[in-house]
Amino acid sequence: MSTNLSLPPAPIGSAPGLAGKLHTTLEMIKFEHSIFALPFALVGGMLAVHGWPTWRQVFWLIVAMVGARSAAMTFNRIADRKIDALNPRTKMRALPAGRLTLRFAVGFTVLSCGLLALAAWELSPLAFKLSPVAIAVLLFYSYTKRFTMLSHLVLGFADGIAPIAAWIALRNDISVSILLVGGAVALWVGGFDLIYACQDIEFDRSISIHSFPQRYGVAAALYTSIACHVAMVVLLVEVIRLESLGWIAIIGLALMAALLAYEHAIVTPSDLSRLNAAFFNVNGYISLIFFLTWGADILKNRMIG
User: pTM (2 decimals)?
Assistant: First the structure.
């Protein structure tokens, strides 16, 4: 990149005390949005055992997901801190604004990676052996937009690991159906990241940051996002067939498809004003609907069987 990405002086002091720094960190990584990927991991675990895992397994799956997302998001903020300082939309994030020290953010990332590894250790030997690979994928994403416009798919792949990892942790093997679930999650996340990236087209062009919208424009990005979400639905239809799921899962998928259609209806090439609502609210509802309906269907099958 030709632009100088040196950080400006921090105008605001870092958050005082451990509690303040922790609160700032959780705010920075939008900790509450862990809900996006967690339901897919839990459903992956339920598909693995054809029912509800033990409460011990559920606990460690949640710990693993919290550790994974916290590490990925914090490292992303670390890697992007100089870029964020130049972007009017992100310059007040905790690191470029000086409300959080780099040292604390690095420590929090290391701790989160350790939490993921500990959870993997508690779940299964294979999960623990594969945890460094998962951590590498999660952290690698943060640098992809520096050299490829396919960073959106890399982000999707990182999130798509969640249900696959849950299956492996509980069964120590792999199946076609869980790979399809992982692929569906990857397309879902990659699709809405294409929408989200439309906010920064001009800024990305100004400092040579790679993204699909930056290269091909808003309209192409939104149409590609639609294609990703259609493919997501197709993959989940196949999972329903392979896993012999019933009407509850079908209704859940129909509701998810309707919300995706709504998401694309409120964000258009000429109007991105409701992008945040589409990104956060609608996708949060999709995650919850997936968990509640598919989880209920799996439990129904378990009781009938």
Answer: 0.89
